[in-house]
DNA sequence: GCCGTTTTCGGCCCGACTGTTTTCAGTCG
């Protein structure tokens, strides 16, 4: 069965092969189309059926045709042809860090080396020694890279929730130890993408060498890969690459804008600047030699006639056009969260747990809590609830902090449980077993959240789509956030497009550096959600 | 191969770092 992910992968393969063939601009065109296809919220087949493939950014006539061919036959002839011309090992060379298309092509065309194994053999045989462009260091570097790539395979991206505590430890260390005034993690981390390939850390510091020292000395650092006067690259023990850049305060906004990306967004920014006779780089916005902006991101965007664009929206999906006409609608943010509607008090919860929960809820000025007080878990077993903790929580329910009781149900197993019997609402826990939601089971006037909707397994996708439709018809909300059982930003965007409201977990009982709340917020923001789109970002009343 | 509120043709972001170079090419982000 065709999938968007597979189509994108095929176009990336085409791009790699064209790279090796020495094409200049086509590879980037295919990659851009692949990125667009990856971020679609609909199936390509659906878009194709409406005849709207050309409206996907980066898809023109030639790629549209290839998409149609893929959808009807599962293959792309053009790719088959390229694969016959380029040996598979040559494309493999491209994926080795430090080896690019030029080197891969030289190995293949000039030296007849058709893959990593042959390259290693050639190095061992001394065949590269004395070849123009290959000095001693370069050869050693290639050998190391090829050998390292053998063990690990393709570079993997880390889930943002895994990178989150690491990023925060780095930021703290730099703030405290390096005399750094401003410290920000830019890149896809700042855009709140689901996964990050590396971390880009920007600092301003009166003492750059001190910043590099502190950075290199972090306990997680496995090796320092390169160090210049403004930039240092290290690799952590878990394989994550982290770049630290020291920038001048008057350029901080420009650098932050530049390194936050995305690539496609920045291309649009630079193109717009060019049209206005300006130049943008990581140091600022320039008219001729004169810097007219750079200290803050707001200045940079303003100099181009744009409203500031939240990082989560910088994906070249129409945000530039929106920012031209005025300020963007304020996205949901931390202060707009007014409560948590999906709290679990597991069997270990005690009076201390309740106190921590209440203290944190009051500190954040939350107005309500929805606590799961009964129900069944994914295995159909009754959920174990700490009764005394629950009682304690319900008794402190006041007008200022209202506590609601929820029943969590697996709707297929227990449709009868959906009849009203005291609780204030239901948390649905759809299991992968049902092909369709229980359309008629929802009693009127009862609040429903669709949570625990696992979509990490691609085979669950059709089920999840049905649940979104269900939510759209029934006015239910869906839970967005990190973890295998919540929806990511692409799903959140899909939900919004169908008029489905979101509910965000807030990590009330979380420990330091917990990613739950910030990541859930980032994903809702990537979906363009304003407070009105989020159930727990406003007043709430169970009916 | 894509794209257009200066373009349907002629562009396509731009600077740091590294290594191998007598002034630059390749890679990366």
Instruction: Give the count of helical stretches.
Output: 21
* Lateral strand order in the biggest sheet: 11-12-13-14-15-16-17
Strand residue content: 15-25%
Number of strand elements: 17
Q: Helix proportion of residues, in percent?
A: 40-55%
The stretches of 5 or more residues where confidence is low (pLDDT under 50) are: 414-423, 432-445
Which class of secondary structure composition applies to the elements? alpha/beta
**Basic shape:** globular
Radius of gyration, whole Å: 26 Å
Distance between the termini: 43 Å
Summarize the biggest pleated sheet.
7 strands, parallel
Mean pLDDT: 84
Write the layout of secondary structure elements.
Layout: H1 4-21, H2 26-38, H3 44-49, H4 61-73, H5 77-85, H6 88-94, H7 101-110, H8 116-124, H9 136-152, E1 158-159, H10 160-177, E2 180-185, H11 187-190, E3 195-196, E4 198-205, H12 208-216, E5 221-227, E6 231-236, E7 241-246, H13 252-260, H14 263-275, E8 279-281, E9 284-287, E10 290-293, H15 297-303, H16 319-324, E11 339-344, H17 351-363, E12 368-375, H18 387-395, E13 402-409, E14 425-428, E15 447-450, H19 461-474, E16 477-479, H20 489-497, E17 502-503, H21 516-526
Parallel strand pairs: 4-7, 11-12, 12-13, 13-14, 14-15, 15-16, 16-17
Antiparallel strand pairs: 1-3, 2-4, 5-6, 6-7, 8-9, 9-10
This protein binds one DNA strand of 29 nucleotides through residues 18, 23-30, 32-33, 57-63, 97-103, 132-135, 137-138, 141, 187, 197-198, 200, 226-231, 233, 243, 245, 258-259, 261, 263, 266-267, 269-271, 273-275, 279-283.
């Amino acid at each position: 069965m065709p999938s968007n992910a597979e189509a994108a992968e095929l176009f990336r393969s085409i791009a790699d092969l064209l790279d090796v063939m020495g094409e200049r601009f086509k590879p980037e065109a295919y990659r851009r189309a692949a990125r667009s296809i990856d971020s679609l919220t609909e199936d390509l087949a659906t878009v194709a059926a409406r005849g709207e493939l050309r409206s996907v950014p980066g898809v023109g006539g030639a790629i549209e045709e290839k998409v149609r061919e893929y959808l009807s036959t599962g293959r792309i002839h053009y790719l088959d042809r390229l694969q016959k011309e380029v040996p598979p090992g040559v494309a493999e060379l491209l994926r080795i860090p430090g080896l690019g298309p030029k080197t891969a092509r030289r190995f293949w065309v000039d030296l007849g080396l058709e893959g990593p194994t042959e390259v290693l053999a050639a190095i061992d045989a001394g065949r590269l020694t004395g070849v123009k462009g290959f000095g001693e260091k370069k050869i050693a570097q290639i050998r190391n890279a090829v050998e390292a790539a053998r063990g690990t395979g393709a570079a993997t991206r880390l889930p943002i929730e895994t990178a989150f505590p690491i990023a925060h430890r780095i930021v703290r260390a730099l703030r405290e130890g390096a005399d750094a005034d401003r410290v920000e993690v830019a890149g896809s981390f700042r855009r709140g993408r689901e996964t990050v390939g590396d971390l880009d850390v920007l600092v301003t510091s009166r003492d750059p060498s001190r910043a590099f020292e502190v950075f290199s000395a972090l306990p997680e650092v496995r090796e320092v890969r390169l160090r210049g006067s403004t930039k240092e690259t290290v690799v952590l023990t878990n394989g994550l690459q982290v770049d630290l850049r020291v920038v001048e305060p008057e350029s901080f906004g420009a650098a932050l804008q530049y390194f936050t990306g995305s690539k496609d967004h920045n291309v649009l920014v630079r193109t717009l600047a060019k049209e206005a006779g300006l130049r943008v780089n990581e140091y600022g916005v320039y008219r001729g030699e004169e810097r007219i902006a750079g200290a803050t991101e707001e200045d940079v965007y303003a100099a181009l006639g744009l409203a500031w664009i939240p990082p989560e929206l910088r994906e070249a999906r129409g945000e530039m056009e929106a920012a031209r006409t005025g300020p963007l609608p304020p996205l949901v943010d931390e202060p707009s969260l007014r409560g948590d509607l999906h709290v679990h008090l597991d069997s270990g919860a005690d009076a201390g747990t309740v106190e921590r929960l209440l203290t944190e809820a009051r500190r954040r000025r939350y107005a309500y809590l929805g606590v799961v007080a009964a129900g069944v878990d994914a295995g159909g077993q009754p959920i174990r609830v700490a009764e005394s903790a629950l009682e304690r929580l319900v008794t402190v329910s006041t007008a200022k902090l209202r506590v609601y009781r929820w029943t969590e149900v697996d709707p297929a197993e227990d449709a009868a449980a959906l009849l009203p019997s005291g609780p204030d609402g239901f948390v649905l826990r759809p299991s992968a077993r049902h092909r369709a939601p229980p359309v008629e089971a929802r009693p009127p006037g009862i609040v429903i959240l669709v949570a625990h909707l696992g979509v990490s397994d691609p085979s669950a996708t059709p089920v999840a789509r049905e649940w979104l439709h269900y939510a759209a018809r029934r006015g239910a909300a869906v839970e967005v956030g990190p973890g295998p059982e919540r929806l990511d930003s692409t799903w959140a965007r899909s939900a919004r497009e169908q008029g489905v409201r979101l509910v965000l977990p807030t990590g009330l009982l979380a420990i330091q550096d917990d990613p739950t709340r910030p990541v859930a917020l980032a994903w809702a923001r990537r979906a363009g959600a304003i407070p009105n789109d989020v159930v727990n970002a406003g007043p709430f009343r169970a009916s």
